[in-house]
Amino acid sequence: MSSNVEEFRQILSSSEKIIVLSGAGLSVASGIPTFRGSGGLWRKYDSASLATPSAFAENQARVWQFFHYRREQVLNVAPNAAHYILAPLTIPRIRQSISPNSKFTHITQNVDGLCTRALEETMKDYHETDVPYPIEMHGRLFDVVCTAHDCDFRETNYNSPICPALKGTELVFGAGGPEPMVRRSDLPRCPKCGQLCRPGVVWFGERPHRIYEIMRLADEADLCIIVGTSAVVQPASKIGGRVKARGGKVALFNVELGNHADEADFVFLGPCEQSLTEVLGI
């Protein structure tokens, strides 16, 4: 395990297939708390217990209030330096200066969309139009999906609030007040069939988007850069190990070592926006 910047840059420059796996730590500097820990708690319910199909089946209003709160958080923040350091790596002519002839894929567990926003802004700055977007394996916070099995409605919705009944419930949370009562009939409905909608994120117990493609990329990669994740949630937690098992290198950028630090060839501890800037220097 090394923290030698020049050694890592040499590995980066010679790599041919690079993947980045990013997690909640990437967005901390934007003001979004991590999914776990004291910043990830919601009243007496922690976020993991609310982000499940069973939680939604039991209390749709509570789950929608939680995700409305998260939506309102993200609507008021912007990408940070860590997002803007990773974004240019997606653009081939920029990446060539630090890793010639390489292919690059950004896989994110985040649902806040900040990776994509940073990339779109970077594309405009460099006048690029045909660049692969990050793979958002856990979906997107601003997507809304119909719960009816025979309805294919899905849309991206940035309305604030997403429905009148949820307006102000995020303020009650912030003040530590009692849980507001919201009727199920007043929650977001499908405009096509009228049935209840759900947030368009992947909940615990559901299959991540494009997971087979992600595992294929991990099997082919010769460098995996893990940024801002404790590597707890499966199957994302397996990605670094798969790269390592096939002879690839793993670099970890995080504020702590995490569960799979023993798989890392390089470890750069500290806030992502600082360590990525210092090491990559883009």
UniProtKB/TrEMBL annotation:
It holds the Pfam family SIR2. SUPFAM superfamilies: DHS-like NAD/FAD-binding domain. It is found in: Mitochondrion. GO terms for cellular component: mitochondrion; nucleus. Residues 1-282 form the Deacetylase sirtuin-type domain. Keywords: Metal-binding, Mitochondrion, NAD, Transferase, Zinc. Gene3D superfamilies: SIR2/SIRT2 'Small Domain, TPP-binding domain. The active site is at 138 (proton acceptor). GO terms for molecular function: histone deacetylase activity, NAD-dependent; metal ion binding; NAD+ binding. The keyword Transferase applies. Its main location: mitochondrion. Zn(2+) binds at residues 146, 151, 190, 193. Belongs to the sirtuin family. Class I subfamily. This is DHS-like NAD/FAD-binding domain-containing protein. It comes from Guyanagaster necrorhizus.
